[in-house]
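Example 3.2
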Amino acid sequence: MTQKPFVIAIDGTAASGKGTLGKRLASHLGMVHLDTGLLYRYVGCKVLREVINIESVMNHNSPEAKFAGQVASKPISLEEIVRLDLSGEAVSKAASMVSAIPAVRAGLLEFQRNVASDPKGAVLDGRDIGTVVCPDAEAKFFITASVESRAERRFKQLQALGKQVIYGDILRELKDRDARDASRKLAPMMAAKDAFKLDTTHMNMDEVFEKVLSVVLSKRA
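Structure, written as C-alpha cells:
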C-alpha cells in the first residue's frame, strides 16, 4: 500500500516569514516547496499588464475579473514565475485582489494539490492551505506577527532588492491586505482548528525554524 505523502501547511499573514520558513523546511526535510502566494502574484501581474484599473477586478463579473480567471485556469510554468518580477507592492495589491475571485482560486487549486501529492512530501505556504487546499495535511501552522514588524521586514526586503519604497506606504498596504484576506467570502485567511499558532514578532528566523521543525518531527515520529 502506497504511503500518503507527508504535507506541511503553513498559513498566515503577509510578510510574516511563511515563504522563508517553508523553503527552509522543505530543503531540510528533502521535500518539495510551493509558495502559493507566487501563483496569485503571477495572476495579478498578468492582469496588471492588461487592465487600466486593477480595482475593476473587485467586480467579479467584470471582463477584468474574467480575464484573471482565464489566466489562472491555464497551465502555469514555474520557470516563467521565476523570471517575472513579482516583488513590487503593486503586484502584491493585485494578488490580494485577484485572490478573492472564485474562478482564480478554482483555477489554481488543482495545481497546488498536485504539488502536495509529490511522493517526497511537500511544504505549501499561503492563506488557505490548511483550511482549503490541504485540509488533511499532517502538520498545520498559522504564522503571524505585528503589522508594524511585518512592514519593517518587507521594507528592508524591498530595499535590499533596490526598490524605492516608503515604510508608511507598506504599512498601509499590509493593513489593507490583512483586511481583504480576512474578510473575503471565499477561503478567507484563518487558522485551521488544528493548526499550531506562532507569533513571530519577537523571534528571529532560526528560532521560528527550530520551533516549527520540532513540531513537524513530533508528528512524523
